[in-house]
Every structure is written in structure tokens, then in C-alpha cells.
Amino acid sequence: MRAAHWRVALQAALASFLTAATLSADAGEKYVHAARGAEAKFEYCTTCHGPSAQGFRGFYVMPRLAGQPAQYIENQLLAFLQQRRRNPVMANVAHGITPSMFPALAKRMSALNPPPFGGAPSGEAALGREIFAHGLPDQNVPACSACHGPDAKGQREIPRLAGQLYWYMVQTLSLWNSERGQGGREDISWIMRPTVANLTPKQIQAVAEYVSALR
Ligand code: HEC
Ligand code: HEC
User: Fold this and answer.
1) Residue 33 CA, ligand 2 centroid: distance in Å
2) Are 74 and 159 a contacting pair, CB within 8 Å?
3) Which residue of 15, 21, 53, 203 has the smallest Cβ count within 10 Å?
């Protein structure tokens, strides 16, 4: 599919999704309280996601949250809460914070800009760069840059990929259909389904190598 078609499809998905799931943004007192609570919770988030939210690789791989668009972070927290996205660890975490804290937490993470975590292989990064910028037209794989942006910084509900941990990228793309967009209702994650279906494991690794090193 051409980039223009993808953009139209994405906009349609976004429009229907946003009307269904937008949080009621209650301004004033409630928000100020939530913002203070969120600052305390931030420390808790960093125990797993790393001191400046740059990600961490231990027994589990913790994704980078630093520099993610705030809307993406908010939407994923909501997805864990609603079980649209399946992950036992983050389901617990999301239940431990009130949704009114989501905006302040997301904003805090979004403002951080540490260097990439690093440590990824780099042998296939040239292939990854090609896939990222131009896709694989013969395999019906669109250019990642068409949605994730030429610098892989993401926008609104579309995540930043720059500096994301290699191992997390490989894992999340490989398990896409069983972890995202669950519960029988189509959500924004379905926009990635054709892409993950048409990439080989080697191509997933290549593109993960490339973007994980981007600042
Ligand atoms: C006990 C460890 C732990 C804590 C504490 C934790 N997280 Fe997570 N988080 C994870 C793991 C593991 C994942 C990856 C889940 C997956 O693979 O789907 C994750 C994923 C996420 C994602 C999705 C990232 C992406 O790129 O899609 C967001 C957003 C997130 N966490 C936000 C938070 C926030 C905000 C807090 C603090 C309130 C927090 N997390 C605290 C372990 C943790
Ligand atoms: C049509 C738009 C579109 C295209 C093209 C696209 N993506 Fe995505 N991508 C998205 C959206 C939207 C999400 C957020 C999904 C969600 O909310 O679960 C996403 C999520 C992701 C994630 C999850 C990131 C995280 O932090 O968990 C990865 C990894 C990813 N895309 C990689 C790619 C790669 C690699 C390509 C190119 C081969 C690509 N995408 C092409 C729209 C797109």
C-alpha cells in the first residue's frame, strides 16, 4: 500500500478511536492534586523503566518512555487498564494509579531526553534504515517513517521509536497480535497488524537495530 493510503487509514482509525476513549480532562483542583501525586509515582516508574526512563534490560526488558509523545503514553496506560493491551506487570501498575494522573505522568516522561540505552547489534542496521525510510514494496510493508516520522520521534498516539531498546522492539513486534488490540474490539494498534504480518524475523531485527541507535 502507498504511504498516502496508510495515512488515510490511520486518520480514520484515530478519529473513531479518540471519540471512543478520550479521557475526561477535568481541569482545576483535581488536576493539581493529580500532578503532585504523579511526581511521587514518577519515582516508582523509574525503578523499572530506568532513572531517566531510558529503559532497562534485566530479567524483563523495560521499554524506554523518555521522549515518547504524551498522548501515546496516556493511551497505552489506558490500554493496559482496559486490557486492550495484555501485560500482567503493567496491568497491575496501571491499576495502582488514578487515570487523572496519566496526563501529568505522561508529560513528565515525554520531556526527558537521555541518550539511547545502547548495546544492540548493528550488523543489519543498513537494511533496517532502508525498511524504515522506504518500506518493502514487494512485501507490502509500508515505510515506517510515513507514520513514525522521518526522525522516528513519533507524534500523538504514534510512538517514538528512536532510542527504543532493541530487545523490546523485537519482542513487541513478534508478539503483536497476542498482546495488542485484545478484547475483540478493533483499536489503533490494529493499524500495525499488516506490517508485523509481512515482516520476517530478520527484517524485524534489522529495523530494531537501526532505530534503537537513533537519538
Ligand atoms: C515493575 C516494573 C514496572 C513498573 C514499576 C512500571 N512499569 Fe511500565 N512497563 C513495564 C514493562 C515490563 C513494560 C513492557 C510491557 C510489554 O512488553 O507490553 C512496561 C511498559 C510500559 C508502557 C508502554 C511503553 C511502550 O513503549 O509501549 C508504558 C506507557 C509504561 N510502562 C508506563 C509506566 C508508568 C507511567 C509507570 C509508573 C506509574 C510504570 N510504567 C511503572 C514494567 C514496569
Ligand atoms: C500506518 C501507520 C504506521 C506505519 C506505516 C507503521 N507504524 Fe508502527 N505504529 C503505528 C501506531 C499507530 C502504533 C501504536 C500502536 C498502539 O497503540 O498499540 C505503532 C506502534 C509501533 C511499535 C510499538 C512501539 C512501542 O513502544 O511499543 C513499533 C515497535 C512499531 N510501531 C514499529 C514499526 C515499524 C518497524 C514500521 C515499519 C516497518 C512501522 N511501525 C510502521 C503506526 C504505524
Assistant:
1) 33
2) no
3) 15
